[in-house]
Amino acid sequence: MLYSDEVIRRHVVAMTRNPQAIEPRGWVAITLAAAGDPQGVKLLREMFDQCLMLGQPIFALWAALALKTYAPLENVQPLITRFAMDQANREAMLNEAIPTVTSDESDESVSTLTTSLEGEDLKSQAVALAKDWSIFDHNVKGATTPLLSSFDEPILIQLLNTLELKSFSAGDLMIEEGEEGGGVFWVCAGKVEITRRNQNKETVHLATLSSGALVGEMGLITRSPRVATVTAAEAVQAFVLPAKAYAMMDESREVVHNALSHLVGKRMLQNITKFSPVFRSIPEEGHPELLSQFKAKVVPAGETLLRQGKPGRGLFLILDGLVEVTQLGSIQPKWLREGDIFGEISLVYDSPVSATCTAARRSLLYTLKPDKFKALVSKYPEIKHTLAELSLFRNLDGLYTMA
Known about the structure:
The protein is an alpha+beta fold. It has 15 helices and 16 strands.
């Protein structure tokens, strides 16, 4: 990353318009550190301390790994240890954004204010803005992230020492749909676009994600091909857990695997409670109980999950993968994909399974055992009613797929 007045000016404008924005502070510090300016190193160290106090772990970790990347002579291990001590075993909560204050000045007027500054004058203003943490309320703490708070201190330190900080320019391809699963990308700054090809080979935009987003974790969990493309929409920095480094984590790998699986599963199930007609009727206060009943399971390609004519084994939700559905007498198989639910018919009618379901590739599933399903239905009988209606008209190729 090369220093330029244009880069510095852009972040000066961002800090002027929004004095409580942390991300442009990080960009200024990194830009200077990457150019060999000792002021950048000082800014990164101060950013680490301030963000740790503010309860903003992603930005604190960004500062620590940036020091490791752009100032290799700096000893960052004490920072990693402090970070791990601060984060380990905290209650898992979603990261809360710091309240922002936007100035009344327009982009044009702020830009005019800074266009006359160049070189050292521009850099001095950038450093002054990046150093000003007095506007933050240090009594208002942010929250830990679910992923970091899943580990005890020794495992977290090992994980943090494995992470790499990578830079991407606007338009760079970070993950390509169909390629073999590799590492996990955790966006710490910038925005990424998530796209996917539909059945007509058309590219469909799925989401735009920013700081705190985790992408690529499914490929690491299931070792299956990527299911979407991730592109840097602007300059991006991301923590990367490389697949090779993950494979060498020994006993810690299973803990990291379980944490990633739980995080992905919880996110998917939260989406289902919003979009699925089956679970939409459950009141919001019942969602945590619902989510806690499902268990993650990775199955290899070729494993039979349900066999026609046999007793049901519970409700299945596909988090990632492909399941082939066949019935005696039918010519063409049908397919279930990410977000689909199956196994409900035998549960609703207390009858043998009506079709054979086989994993067509390595898949990550969330399962709900029959006894757990019955307990849930006894508390929320509308679930059984909805499933009974849907199973009469079910289109196995997508009726349950989330919007």
